[in-house]
Design goal:
four-stranded parallel sheet; 313 residues; five-stranded parallel sheet; Rossmann fold; homotrimer
Chain lengths: 313, 313, 313
C-alpha cells in the first residue's frame, strides 16, 4: 500500500464493494487499534464528541456488545435502539425512523436488519455514515474482516491460502462476506455442506463447492465452521442435527486429516458437539476466542475510518 | 429580557407555570446550545459529574433518545429506567421508587408517566430536579418548547402569528403545552379537528376552536398536525382513518389555501397520507425534521438550567 | 488495620471467604468513596479506560442501577447485558458466554444469577475480576457490606451489637451474607420468623434462631427486615401475608419494645404495611434510604479494589 492511500467511503456496507487495497487498509488500521485494548487505559479520544447510534432492528448481542465496546474505546457518545424501542412499532417507515435519527446530528449509524439491502437503501438517503452490522443473508462485513484479520495475524498472509467454510452457506451472510473478501485478497475458498445448503451457483463467484467434508478439509489452511440454526432442521434442509453433525462436524477423528497448523474458526455462538466437538473447540487449533478479540479491533478501525471520512457529507 | 434574569426553578413541569420571560429565556439558552451540536466535537462539560436518570414509566423512543443525546452532549452520567426494569413491577409505590433513585444522589430525573400530575406529585417530594417528559394528556413542555423554538427561528417572532393545531386535541399533551406557551408569547392559537376530539371548552383558555379545516388554515402562519392514534377509531371518535384524512389531512389540494411560507409541523412519528400527504411531509413548507434537531437544543437548555438551579435544593 | 494491608483478591464472591480485616478494609475504602458522591462533580477517574460488564442473568433494577452509577462515578466504560440479550437464549453455555465477554478484554464482570455458585464457577475459569451481585439464595456480598457500612456509620462499631434479621431467612441471600459478615466482625446475630422460613440449622453457623418476634426485638441494636415474596404464600410457607404481618411486622405497637436508637433496616423494595408499617418505614429509626446511598459507596469501593488487584491476572 502506498503511503498516500486515503479512505474515502462514508459507509461500510459490503466487502463486495471494496478493493483489495481498501480491505488491506482496514486490516492495517485494526492492527494499530488492537494495541489500544491491550493497554492499561483501553481508550483513545478518536471519536470524542461524535455520536453513534446502534440500531439493531434484528436482535443481536455479540455484535452489538462488540460495537458498543469499540465505540466506548474510541470515546464516542452512544445510543442503543432496537426495533421494539423504535417508532417502527408505531408504523413509522424505516426511512422516516432513520431520518429522525439523522436529525439528531448523529455521525454514525451501526445497523442490523433482516432485509437484504436495507442498509444500502438507508445509506443512499442519509448523510451520516452507515455501517452494516448484518443484513439478512447478504452481508456482514465486520465479521468477515475480523476473520481475515485473524487469518492474516496467524498465517502472515491471506494470498494463496485454502480456506474451507463449512455449513449452512445458503443462509449465511458470514459466508458471502468472507467469500468476497478472501477472493479479493487472493485466497482459495471452498464451500462445503449438505447439497441443500450449498448450491452449486456459488461456483460462479469463484469458490469451489463440495458436498463431502473430506474434500474440503484436504490441505485446508483454515476451516471456518458456520453455526447451524436448529430451525433449519424442521424446514427440511437436513434430516437431523445429529446427522448433520456426523457428516459435517469436526471431531477428534477427522481433525487428523488437517495439517497440524490449520486454524479452526467459528463466528459463534458455537453449538458444542454439533459443528465441532468440545475438544476441538477448546483445542490448540481453535482461534475462536481470538476472533472475538480481533472483532473489537476491526470494528474500532471501521468506525474510525468511516467517521473520519467527511468528504461525502 | 434584562441581563440580570436568573432561572430559579428546580423543576420543569408545565409551560402553564412559566412566565413569558422564563419561556423566552429557555429559547434563548437553547439557541446557544444549538451551536454545540453543529460543532465537530458535539460536547460541553456543563453537566460533568452530574447524574441524570431517565425514568420512562410510559414507553417512548423519540423523546428518550433526544433527552439521552442532550445529556451526553452535556457530559452527564446517565441511567435509563423503564417501568419493566423498575421495582414498580414488584408492587413498590411510585414515590418509593423515586425516593430510592434520589437516594443514589441523582441530580435530575427526566420522567414520563401515563398519569396526569405524576411528575408534579414527585417533584414536591424529592429534592432532585424533575423534568416532565410527558404526563398523560396533560403536559409535554419540551415538545412545546421545541415547536416554539422552531417557529421563532423560522419566523423571527411568535407574537401575533396565527398557529393552527389540527387533530386529536382532546388527548394531546402536545396541544395543551403549545397552547399555554404560545398564548403567553402572544400568538393566536386555533384548534381544529372533529367535534368529538376538539371540544368547545378549550375556548375558555383563550384559543379559537373550529371544526372545519378551511377555517383553521385561513391565514395560518403555522400548521401543527397532531398524530392520529389508530385506537381512537375503534373507540368511536371518528368513523375511519380514511374519513379523518379526507376532512383533516393536509394534501396538495388544500395546501394551496396556505400562504407560501406557512410552516408545516408535526411532533412525529408521522402517519404518511393520514395527517398529511407524503408530498407535503417532504415538501418545502415542512420543518418536521428541523423540529427534531431543535428538540435536542431545547432539552440541553432545560437540563442545563434546571441542573444549575441549586437554590431550592 | 495496619497501614501495609493490601487487597489481593481478583473477585468478590462471598463474605464467607473474607477475613474480618478484609471486610473492614472494604468499609474503610467505602468511607472515602462516599465523599465522592457528595461532591459537586461526583466522579473520579479511578477506572478510566477499564471495561465493566453488568451481566444480570436474573433480572434486577435496584442493584443493577446502583452498580451502574458506581461504575460511572469511577469513570469506567460500561456494557449492560441481560439473559434475554445474551447468547444464552441461543443455547450457548454460561461459560462460553462469559469467555466471549472476557475475550473483549473486559476487566470486571458484575454478575447476578439464579444458580447458587454460578459466579464461583465462572470466577475460576476467567481471568477478569468477578463481582457477585447475588446468586440464588446463597450470597449477595455488596448488600451485606452496605448494611454493615450503615450500622458502623450510625453506631460507630459492629462488635457486640445485637442485630435481628426478621423474615424469610430460608430463601434469603441477604440474610446469609449478613450472617457471615456480622459474625466475623463480632456482632450477635438473631434470625427470627415463622419456623417454616427460619430452620434451626442456622444455629450451627453461630446465630441465634427464634420464632417469636418479641424475643428477637428484645435489646436489639439493629432490626433488619427482609422482603416477603408474595409467592411464598401460595407455596404454603405461611397462611397469609396478613397473618405474617400480624406476627412478624413492625408496627407502632411493637416498636415500643425497641431501644429508642434501634436502627430499622430493609434491603428494599419494601412492602408497606407488611414487613413494617408505613409510619415505621418513614419514622426516625428508619435508615432504609441511607442504605441505598451507602450501597453506592460500598460498590465503588469493591469495584475499585477488585479492579486494582492485577496480581492474579
Amino acid at each position: 500500500m502506498t503511503a498516500e492511500f486515503r479512505w474515502t467511503r462514508k459507509d461500510l456496507l459490503s466487502l463486495y464493494d471494496l478493493s483489495a487495497e481498501e480491505i488491506t487498509y482496514i486490516l492495517d488500521t485494526a492492527e494499530e487499534f488492537k494495541k489500544v485494548s491491550e493497554r492499561n487505559v483501553k481508550k483513545v479520544p478518536a471519536l470524542r464528541g461524535k455520536t453513534v447510534v446502534n440500531f439493531f432492528v434484528e436482535p443481536s448481542t455479540r455484535t452489538r456488545v462488540s460495537f458498543e465496546l469499540a465505540e466506548q474505546r474510541l470515546s464516542a457518545d452512544i445510543v442503543n435502539m432496537t426495533a421494539s424501542t423504535s417508532s417502527l412499532t408505531k408504523g413509522e417507515s424505516l426511512l422516516d425512523t432513520v431520518r429522525n435519527i439523522e436529525a439528531l446530528q448523529v455521525d454514525l449509524l451501526v445497523m442490523r436488519h433482516r432485509a437484504t439491502g436495507a442498509q444500502n437503501f438507508i445509506a443512499q438517503n442519509v448523510s451520516c455514515g452507515v455501517i452494516n452490522a448484518g443484513d439478512g443473508a447478504h452481508s456482514h462485513p465486520t465479521q468477515a474482516l475480523l476473520d481475515m484479520f485473524t487469518i492474516r495475524e496467524k498465517k502472515g498472509r491471506i494470498k494463496g491460502l485454502k480456506v474451507a467454510i463449512i455449513g449452512d452457506i445458503l443462509h449465511s451472510r458470514v459466508a458471502r462476506s468472507n467469500m468476497w473478501g478472501l477472493l479479493k485478497l487472493g485466497a482459495d475458498v471452498v464451500f462445503a455442506g449438505p447439497a441443500t445448503l450449498v448450491p452449486r451457483e456459488f461456483e460462479e463467484a469463484g469458490v469451489k463447492v463440495c458436498h463431502r467434508l473430506e474434500e474440503a478439509l484436504e490441505g485446508a489452511d483454515v476451516v471456518n465452521l458456520l453455526r447451524i440454526q436448529h430451525e433449519r432442521q424442521s424446514a427440511g434442509f437436513f434430516p437431523s442435527i445429529n446427522e448433520y453433525s456426523r457428516f459435517f462436524g469436526i471431531n477428534q477423528e477427522n481433525i487428523k486429516r488437517l495439517k497440524p497448523d490449520t486454524l479452526i474458526m467459528h463466528p459463534g455462538p458455537i453449538n458444542r458437539d454439533v459443528e465441532l466437538d468440545s475438544s476441538v473447540a477448546d483445542g490448540p487449533n481453535s482461534v475462536i476466542l481470538e476472533q472475538v478479540t480481533n472483532g473489537l479491533a476491526v470494528r474500532m478501525a471501521v468506525l474510525f475510518l468511516v467517521a473520519g471520512c467527511g468528504g461525502k457529507r
